[in-house]
Amino acid sequence: MWLLDRLAEERIEQALARGELDDLPTRGRPLALDDDSMVPEHLRAGYRLLKNAGYLPEELETRREIHDAEELLRIARTEEERAHAGARLRLLMSRLESRRGSSLSLQDDYYRRLCERLG
Questions:
Q1: Which of 9, 116, 110, 12 is nearest to 67 (CA)?
Q2: What is the 3-state secondary structure (H, E, C) of the chain?
Q3: d(CA 80, CA 41)
Q4: R_g of the chain, CA atoms, integer Å
Q5: Contact at 8 Å (CB) between 111 and 93?
Q6: What's the CA gap between 82 and 104, in Å, rounded?
Q7: Structure pTM?
Q8: Which of 28, 46, 48, 60 has its CA 20 to 30 A from that of 54?
Q9: 63 Cβ partners below 8 Å, 6+ apart?
Q10: Tens of pLDDT along 57-109?
Q11: What is the pLDDT of residue 69?
């Protein structure tokens, strides 16, 4: 389970224990999670097939990996771990940039500020 998923589950369990979710209007009813009304009808079967197979477009998968690398950089304890996580983050960001065919100067600035903040 992803770190963010685990954190979300813990927060939900805590809210349930405190009774904060008892009076929600949809309590006891299933949520409509498969709302594909914005997908053209002739593409819905293909989208559903890809979704059920767990497929993510390459850009989203790379963004997920970037998020994980940022988390590793944040929790790194040694200089070696920081260097390794930073190198991985730079590689992933350049991979994303090459796929897009445009500059990620804003993300480069973000990466620089992230590195400064984390030491």
A1: 110
A2: CCHHHHHHHHHHHHHHHHCCCCCCCCCCCCCCCCCCCCCCHHHHHHHHHHHHCCCCCHHHHHHHHHHHHHHHHHHCCCHHHHHHHHHHHHHHHHHHHHHHCCCCHHHHHHHHHHHHHHC
A3: 51
A4: 19
A5: yes
A6: 22
A7: 0.49
A8: 28
A9: 96
A10: 888 888 899 999 999 989 999 999 999 999 999 999 888 888 776 554 555 66
A11: 92
Q: Which amino acid is at 8?
A: A
Distance of CA 98 to CAs 16, 59, 102, 104, Å? 44, 11, 7, 9
Q: Which pair of tokens denotes residue 45?
A: 């079967």
Token pair for 115: 């590195």
68 contacts: CB under 8 Å, gap ≥ 6: 2, 3
What does the block give as tokens for 92? 């992933």
75 vs 82: CA distance, rounded Å:
9
Joined tokens for residue 22: 């008892």
Per-residue tokens: 14: 């805590």
